[in-house]
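Input chain follows. Return structure tokens only.
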Amino acid sequence: MKIAVTGAGGFIGSNLTDALLAAGHRVLGLDDFSTGSMRFLEHAVQQPGFELAEIDLYRQADELPVRFAGCDAVVHLAANADVRFGWSAPRRDLEQNTIVTHAVLEGMRRAGVGRIVFSSTGSVYGEAPEIPTPEGCAFPLQTSLYGASKLAAEGLVQAYAEGTDLKATIFRFVSIMGPRYTHGHVVDFLRKLRADPTRLEVLGDGRQRKSYLHVSDCVAALMSVLDADHRCEVFNLGVDDYCSVVESAGWICARAGLEPRIEYTGGDRGWVGDNPFIYLATGKIRTTGWEPRYSIRAAVEDTVDYLLDNPWVLGREEIRT
């Protein structure tokens, strides 16, 4: 198959690209490298089955029908993925998550591409009334611009699947970790510890409960549906477990060989839109035969090991404009 991967230079996208190439697929990688990195594609660009298109999906949407021509499927991963900074640039989630998703769908329709795998988020559940949260849970009020933009994008994917011949799979992720991880609490904690190894500031009270998934398990799920025959299915993606932020902080510090003083900013959440309890029910995806191989602790520790071995990632500054 020839698979287009948007956000191919990013954390999940580059891991998926390498896995697809290893499985014998051809890959068209699309990225503007605003947050992705060419260093993550060093192996891919040496493979004869890889083609790279450096493109801004928002500003160059008219090019997508030509770019997608000949592709069997699109895995749409490109997005603004950091929920914390939505209110510093309120239009960014709309542009990069909702409008770009429409551009991808329309490009696929015009190019005749019949399958999309879309990366959504567990954030669409807001502060869910049901824990662990199943796919059929009634949506509460949205608590973040990021979650709202992804929910709107899901609606577009579903509408295109209903109105055209498109086959769609939507994955609602917990936070993903592992090699090439570039943003999130492990990066934040290690940056703080690099600046001062004697203290670690934790946003909120540390009691927030989160679930995490290793990127290799995420990639395996994405690849498992490339030939699925359903019209449109939604799957939660995560492990059957969760941890507190303070537990995760302890694993990170221990892996780094540090014993800092933990200081809490207070309150039951770290920022506007922070969900204090994220735990998704994953029984539906498990009926397909998919099972995660990494525990949450193993995923956190593997992420720490990667970042300590690749300190250049900690030196990257995320774009906030």
